[in-house]
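Page 42, continued from yesterday. The earlier attempt failed because a stray header line got pasted into the input along with the sequence. Redoing it now with the clean sequence only.
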Amino acid sequence: MGDICLVLSHIGNFETAISSSDFQILELRTDLIPLNFEIIDEFIPKFEKWIISIRKESFEQENFNEILDYILKFEPKFVDIDEDCLNEELINKVISKSELIISYHNYDHTPDFDFLQNKIDKFVELGAKMVKIVCKGAKNSDFATVSKLYNKNNNLICFLMGENYRQSRIEAYFKGAKITYARLENAKEVAAGIPELENLKRDLQVFEKNLEKSIEVEPFKVSGQISANASKSHVQRLLAIAILTKGKTIINGFEGSKDVDAFLKIVKELGFEVQLTNNQLIIENSNFNFLNSVSVNVGESGLALRMMPFILSNIAHEYEIKASSTLLNRPLNVFLESVEASGIEILSRKFPLKFRGRILKSEIFIDGSFSSQMLSGLLISLPLQSKDTVVFVKDLNSKPYIDMTLEVMSKFGIKVEVENYSKFTIKGNQNYQNHEIKADGDWSGIANFLVAAAISGKVEVENLDINSPQADKAILEVLRNFGAKIDITNSSVIIENCEFRPFNFDCTHAPDLFPILTVLAAKAKGISRIKGWKRLLHKESNRCAAIMEIMGKFGVEIQLEEDEMLVFGNGKIEGGLTINPHSDHRLAMMASIAATLADDKITILNPDVVEKSYPDFFRTLERVKILK
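This time it went through. Structure tokens are written below.
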């Protein structure tokens, strides 16, 4: 690891600076601190390892050349000369006493790799022991430029300036930066984004801890046969109905995930008998009595949260809902408006959320533009009411998920009249019938491997229902337009790479496909258009911004136009990068599959986030990937 350098921009901070033991080098900014021989005599001998930085403004000081000569008598460890100040006499003077750093700064933008590499080569030829490249971050692809420079050069200090590019300094430290800069608390920010020392130490520790748990994915292609994992969306609907079904519900092909496990824990805590043998789950609901009050924790599951008030209104008089992690930061207004519209009383609008009473209204009006999950919860709960109910929905999104809900209800004997996805009529006094059912394979999770095959290789996937109402089955339509070979048999789907064409696709009703489709689009040379990015703003992360950040780091240009994301594919991405998936399972999977396009490994921080929906993702990847 490199050294931490504390930047001294005011001589009055010297005593405070040297009282700390958390850095190894002090930088004296001769362009910022007025110097004389007395100051040099007083301070330079008191610290062993200095960088004396020289900028064009340094020469505005009176007698600066004489002052510099005097400083060099103390033989400081490093002298950093900005390119604008270079001359043969100055270089020779410095290298006779100190190790020379030559620096290039660009306060407007980050030039391309070739330009910066030429600078490095030139500076080394001039005698630099170390080269410093510091540019203003202007776009996320600048991260890739910095990473590429570290991949090719030793003895480098290179990072991006700017508040939005602070992470570049942290990543540079672990890429091999010889020096990383910090400032004292409340000291002048001499460059945009330079952190305070304590914050830098904290961020380095956090990043190092995350690196210890990271996964490295080398460039690969895929080949082999795999089985799709169980769909968490389908399984959670089955669990919700099992709670409301008298008698026994049997779910075959059951697989857990963080979201499913949180829901199953609720089932157990409500007092239902649960038996799991191999992949068969049996839920017994025979002696249940209506509860006075109950408290449940939905974990990070947005679906469980948005369905649960309606489900619990059939279970208890008062009910409390807790949540964790990213779910605590998601907006609640539209969700709570839907609950209120049903007649359920809201006792607390902040976590833990608290509710009272049953669904009272016979006509319910809700907004479906934010999410369809509240409607799913209503539809599952309303057949048990003593009266008929009509639900009017405005601007319903994710219609296939409502199809999934209706299909599951139908298999348990419940009928719902649907008019144009805007009016749903549910007869009261219906009962769910005992049923044995198989959990659907998950199109959203397996879409990652289908895309990997379309980019580089061939894969056969079993346990996928081609007639499933799952929205993400639309991946087949995209891959067909992309140019992949698709073979569908009675038991499997086979995808093989062939052509790589740009595509247009509306993701409004299948927002979970968005991340992996940007990787697919990066392979196709040209512009792909993916509609519906506004659906991504309130997922596990601000998924739209996070996709643009990650793909930008990979060197892929993305633009937003109204509700369309334009991906400018060039057939490859930059590797050698460390990716933060922002606690989002789909972004971790997306970044991993991107290695099919990379020229170097991709490091994924916090890979365990995939456990939310696809715990076996990385184990499955190991089974089918072949290193290039």
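Notes: Residues 318 and 356 are 4 Å apart (CA to CA).
Reminder to self: strip header lines before submitting.
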